[in-house]
Amino acid sequence: MSRELWKLTNEEYEFIKGEITFIFEKYQIHCIPVCGFEIAIKMGIKLIPYSALPEREQKYAREKCPDGYVVETNDGRELIYYNDIDWSYEHQNWTILHEIGHIVLDHRGIDQEKEEDEADFFAKYAIAPPILVHKIGAKSPCDVYENFDISMEAAVYAYRYYKSWRDGYLLVGRLTEYEKKILELFSA
């Protein structure tokens, strides 16, 4: 099955949204734009930029994992290595959120394709939750781009996801408990 065709179940999406809300609440994340660096630090995850690695390790990391990766040490600490050489801040932030997704969702490499999809969704939802896109009154991808400090490409996807969410919200007319909690956290 190709990566583009893989879909998570509604239950899996809802679980991930709940986990993100839990992380926002536990670590008092309440500012837009959402910063993966801040979350990682508050979670006690050590962040290691590729530029801090010796040249040989740097080359290996960039070839093996062009964006970044997570490592659990023997004593149970998590380290996120991220590519600060080839990518913009926006891309680095998304990568860190993706790797945090692997940690929070306790991925063990059993079903790598599914785990990558889950971590991708974790980053996508954490960086621009539709309820926060709604809160800022976004009228276009440019509004998302300007407020969430993400790439224009990511802003287009986030806005498209928001519009789909908004259609569902207008149909149902109520927010989920996690959406209410996110609004509460980001109301300050």
Architecture (CATH level 2) name: Orthogonal Bundle
What is the count of helical runs?
9
How many strand units?
3
The average pLDDT is 94
What's the CATH class label? Mainly Alpha
Helix content range: 55-70%
Query: Strand order, biggest sheet?
Result: 1-3-2
Supply Rg. 17 Å
Low-confidence stretches: 1-5
What structural class results from the helix and strand content?
Answer: mainly alpha
CATH fold-level name = Arc Repressor Mutant, subunit A
**Overall geometric form:** globular
Biggest beta sheet summary = 3 strands, mixed
Alpha carbon gap, first and last residue: 44 Å
Instruction: Give me the strand/helix succession.
Output: HHEHEEHHHHHH
Count of domains:
1
Question: Into which percentage range does the β-strand content fall?
Answer: 5-15%
Question: What topology emerges from the helices and strands here?
Answer:
Layout lengths: L9 H17 L9 H8 L2 E4 L5 H10 L3 E5 L5 E5 L6 H16 L7 H16 L2 H6 L5 H8 L3 H21 L4 H9 L3
Parallel strand pairs: 1-3
Antiparallel strand pairs: 2-3
Describe the structure.
The chain has helices spanning 10-26, 36-43, 55-64, 89-104, 112-127, 130-135, 141-148, 152-172, 177-185; strands spanning 46-49, 68-72, 78-82. The protein has a single domain, classed as Arc Repressor Mutant, subunit A (Orthogonal Bundle), CATH 1.10.10.2910. The chain has a three-stranded mixed sheet, covered by helices on one side. The protein is built from nine helices and three strands. It has 188 residues and is mainly alpha-helical. Residues 1-5 have low confidence and may be disordered. The protein is globular and about 55 Å long. Helix 2 packs parallel to helix 4 (89-104), helix 4 crosses helix 5 and helix 7 (141-148) crosses helix 8. It is 59% helix and 7% strand.
